[in-house]
Amino acid sequence: MLQIKDINHVLYRHPDLGVVERFLTDFGLVVMHRTEQRLYFRGTCSLPYVYIAEKASEASFGAIAFAVESLDDLHQASRLPGASVIRALEGPGGGQYVALHDPSGRRIELVHGIEAVGTLPQRAALTLNSAHHKQRFGDVQRPGKGAAQVLRLGHAAIGVQDMPRHLAWYQQMLGMLPSDLVVEEPDRDRPSAAFLRLNRGSAWTDHHTIALFQAPKDFVHHVSFEVQDFDAQCLGHEWMTLQGWSPFWGVGRHMLGSQIFDYWRDPSGNLIEHFTDGDLFNQDSPSGYTQACDASLYQWGPPMSVEFFLGGECAAEQTVPRSTSDRQRRS
Ligand SMILES: [Fe+2]
C-alpha cells in the first residue's frame, strides 16, 4: 500500500491571474514563484507551494496532489492501473510525480522529492484564558490586524455522482480511512457523505483530508487551508471584507471534524475555506455514523445558504472585489 504523507497542493485554472493573485494574497497566501502561465502560492509551512494558479481561457479545476513518503511509493504508484510514468515536476523545488485519475476522471498527483524551503514567520498561537483554565497572566492579547496567514493546505471536498466507487477508490488506492459517514439508516453501506483521513498509523492526522458527498455531478466543492487560530480566522474575515470581498459562509463551527470554518468564493467562482481547530484522529479512531441533517454540517454559525451545496458551480459570473468594481465604475 502506498504511504501517503499529506495533501501537498492543488492546481486551479483561472482566466484572470491578476485578480486571483489579489484575492489569494488577501486570503493569506504568498506568491513564491511566477511564470508566464502560473503563479505558485505558498503558506508559512516549509512547502514551496500549496496552490498553483494556472492561466487558462476558462476556469476549471486542475489537480489535487498528495506527497508520498518515498521514491519507492512513486514506483508503486506508476504500476497502478491508468497511472502515468514518473515525471519531473515543473515548480520550484523540483521533485517528481505520478498522475492518477479517480473514478470521475479527476487528476490526482502523487509527488515526491520537492525540496523544502524555510518556514515564514507566523504569529504564535494565542494563549487563551477560559473561565476555569487561566494560562495568561500579566500579559495582553493583541494579535494585530491583517490577512489570516495560511499555514498549509488541509483538505479538499468533492461532489461525486457515484459514491460507492469513489469511496472504494480513495480507500483502496490512497489507503484512506473513514472518520465519519453520513448515512440514512438502515442503509449504512451507501453513505451520502464520507469524511476520509490519511492512514498515518499511530500518528495523529486531520479528521479528513478528502470529503466526498453525493451530488448530481462530479466537481470539486472546495479546498481548505489551515490558519493559526480563531482570532486569525476572524481577523482574516474582517481583512477580506475590508478589501472588498464578500463572505460566502462563516465564521462557524462544523460538526464532523469540528473545524471552525470560513468560506469565500474566489474570482473564478470556486469555494475556498479557512479552517482552524480541527479534530485529530489516528488508526485507532473508530468511524462515526451520523444521520444527514443541517445539524450534521455545523454546530453554530450564520444560516447556511442553499448555494453551499452547489459550491463554485453556482457562480455564473466572476466575483470581483467591491472596491475594484467601484474603481471600474469611477474610471
Ligand atoms: Fe472544508
UniProtKB/TrEMBL annotation:
Listed GO biological process terms: L-methylmalonyl-CoA metabolic process
Signal peptide: none
UniProt KW Metal-binding keyword: yes
UniProt keyword terms in alphabetical order: Metal-binding
Record SUPFAM superfamilies: Glyoxalase/Bleomycin resistance protein/Dihydroxybiphenyl dioxygenase
Origin: domain of life: Bacteria
TM region positions: none
Domain VOC: 6-113, 152-277
Pfam family, one: Glyoxalase
InterPro entries assigned: Glyas_Bleomycin-R_OHBP_Dase, Glyas_Fos-R_dOase_dom, MMCE/EMCE_epimerase, VOC_core
Annotated GO MF terms: metal ion binding; methylmalonyl-CoA epimerase activity
CDD domains tied to this protein: THT_Oxygenase_N
Keyword check for Transmembrane helix: no
Annotated PANTHER family: METHYLMALONYL-COA EPIMERASE (PTHR43048), METHYLMALONYL-COA EPIMERASE, MITOCHONDRIAL (PTHR43048:SF3)
Name of the protein: Bleomycin resistance protein
Native species: Pseudomonas brenneri
